[in-house]
Structure formats: structure tokens, C-alpha cells
Specification:
By secondary structure, the protein is of the alpha+beta class. It contains seven helices and eight strands. Strands 1-2-3-4-8-7-6-5 form an eight-stranded antiparallel beta sheet, with helices on one face.
């Protein structure tokens, strides 16, 4: 019973309105965590909170990021998938933020004899993989998420971190215990002039996470706790 109450306390802290002191991270938390496992509810909540649907042309780097994502999906080695995606924009305290929400439904494995061996072995048979993603971008950011802000929120250290001045700063936090159904949150900052810009197609700040849809875990759709 103690374990159940401890989990409830951690879950409550993850969803609480208390801030970490970092505007981008707090905006991400409010936009992405409450309905992270329900794509329709997440989009409805964003609209209710004042986010507005935008086109890719709302910011040139938003368009570049979307173009790069499409190119990756066109890779013939990628699994068969369908993707529903919505782009949102909002100005908060003078800063322009973008949130991209998506639901991907994919088949991982063979649905036909791709390798030409005349058989689809049991370990090659396709299985369903569904994922809801939510990410925040601040293309005009000039500094990373405030030091320690993720640790304050998650009460944990990153499982991976990188600090390459002038190139890339960020890390990955494992949050499954705090937010069941969500494995990791990735935080990154790419400054102007970074050699990584050519690959990632943007400068500024990104915070992204992916979750298992609620219907995958419980058989029903609905609001997260």
C-alpha cells in the first residue's frame, strides 16, 4: 500500500502547476503532460488553453524541421506507418513557442516477404506499434533550459547528457516511474553557428517526449490521472 501512495505522490508532483523556474520547460509541461496518452484530448486541451493551429510557414525553421521529418519517413527501411500530426503556436511572455503533437500507428516487422526468402518467420511477423508524441520548440532561444530545472521537476539526474559549448547542450531523462506510459524526455539546445544545424535543421531549444496511447494500455481512451 505504501508503494501505491508513493507512486500517487510522484504522479501528482509531475502534473502539478508548480513551476521549475524555466519558461520553456513549464510551457512544455502544461502543453504536453496532462493528456500525453490521448491525442484527441491533448489537442482539445491545447486549443482551450489558447494555442492556435499554425501552418509550417509560420516560422522558416518549423518548415525545415517538418521537411526533415517527412524525408526520414520516406526512407524505404522505415516501418509501414500512418501519422496524424498537428502544429500549434502561442506567444507566452513575449516568446514564441511551437508545439507539435502526433500519433503514429506502425507495423514493425514483415507484412510481406521483403527479404525474398519465401517465408515470414515467427520473429519477422509484424506487430503493432502505436505512439503519441508531443514536442515544444523555441527557435529563437539563445540559451538552454535552466541548469537543474529538469532535475527539479523529475527529482532525477539525466540518463544521458551532453555539453558541447557552441554546438549542443542537453540530455535525456527517464520519467517512466513518474509518468507511466512515457519512457523518456529529450531536451536539447542548438546555438547559432553549431555544426549540428545542417543535420537537425534548426537552432534554438527543443523538448520532446513520446508515450504509449492510453487505449493500448487499458483498452479505453480517456483523460490521464
Amino acid at each position: 500500500m505504501i508503494g501505491i501512495w508513493a507512486a500517487a505522490i510522484v504522479q501528482s508532483a509531475a502534473m502539478s502547476p508548480a513551476t521549475t523556474g524555466d519558461l520553456a520547460l513549464d510551457t512544455f509541461r502544461a502543453a504536453c503532460t496532462p493528456y500525453r496518452q490521448d491525442y484527441a484530448a491533448m489537442n482539445a486541451a491545447l486549443e482551450a488553453e489558447g494555442w492556435r493551429r499554425v501552418g509550417e510557414d509560420d516560422h522558416p525553421e518549423l518548415a525545415a524541421v517538418q521537411a526533415a521529418a517527412r524525408a526520414e519517413m520516406d526512407d524505404p527501411d522505415m516501418p509501414e506507418m500512418t501519422l496524424d500530426q498537428t502544429l500549434w503556436g502561442r506567444t507566452v511572455q513575449g516568446r514564441r513557442f511551437y508545439v507539435v503533437t502526433s500519433r503514429m500507428d506502425a507495423l514493425i516487422g514483415e507484412t510481406r516477404d521483403r527479404d525474398g526468402d519465401g517465408v515470414i518467420a515467427e520473429h519477422e511477423q509484424a506487430t503493432e506499434f502505436d505512439q503519441i508524441s508531443c514536442g515544444l520548440w523555441d527557435f529563437d532561444a539563445v540559451e538552454p533550459v535552466a541548469p537543474g530545472a529538469m532535475t527539479v521537476w523529475t527529482a532525477s539526474l539525466p540518463v544521458q547528457s551532453f555539453d558541447l559549448p557552441g554546438q549542443m547542450i542537453g540530455g535525456t531523462w527517464n520519467v517512466y516511474d513518474m509518468m507511466p506510459g512515457t519512457a523518456e524526455i529529450h531536451v536539447g539546445f542548438i546555438p547559432e553557428g553549431s555544426p549540428f544545424v545542417e543535420r537537425v535543421r534548426f537552432t534554438g531549444l527543443s523538448i520532446v517526449m513520446s508515450s504509449a496511447p492510453l487505449d493500448d494500455e487499458t483498452g479505453t481512451k480517456g483523460e490521464n490521472p
